[in-house]
Amino acid sequence: MKRILLLFFIFSLYSNILPAQFETWQIGQTTLTGSMLVDDLEIPWEILYGPDDHLWVTERQGRVWRINEETGDKQLVLDHVEQVTQDGTEPGMLGMAFHPDFESNQQLFIVYNWTDQNGNRWERLSSFEYLNQELTNENTILDSIS
Fold this sequence. Notes:
Elements: H1 2-13, E1 24-27, E2 30-33, E3 44-49, E4 54-59, E5 63-68, E6 74-79, E7 93-98, H2 102-105, E8 107-115, E9 121-131, E10 134-145
Antiparallel strand pairs: 1-2, 3-4, 4-5, 5-6, 7-8, 8-9, 9-10
């Protein structure tokens, strides 16, 4: 069920380019109907269904949102725009993954691009803690990945 809801979310991101006939899908005996959940994300990159029953979305420019899949309410949990480099074809805030024991340690891993003082672009893998409704305590795990 969670995967179907995630599928609806992905389709809803692009619903403005999908023809109206794609709002309902028939799969065997099941009819699926898509609807708009959130319509103001800027280049969503990674979309995960979290162990907390919320959608977690990275935006390429450096934000992470936590979205209630039932109401569409979204909460900014990380604004890393100043640290993230997004020039070029694919850089920016990229993927994320929940720690396998997220429910007890509240750790989330994120990969993003950054630029050093010499103008060199690198990739970084960091862990963050989800505390008090935000991602904090960045801990760099791998850095200066070319």
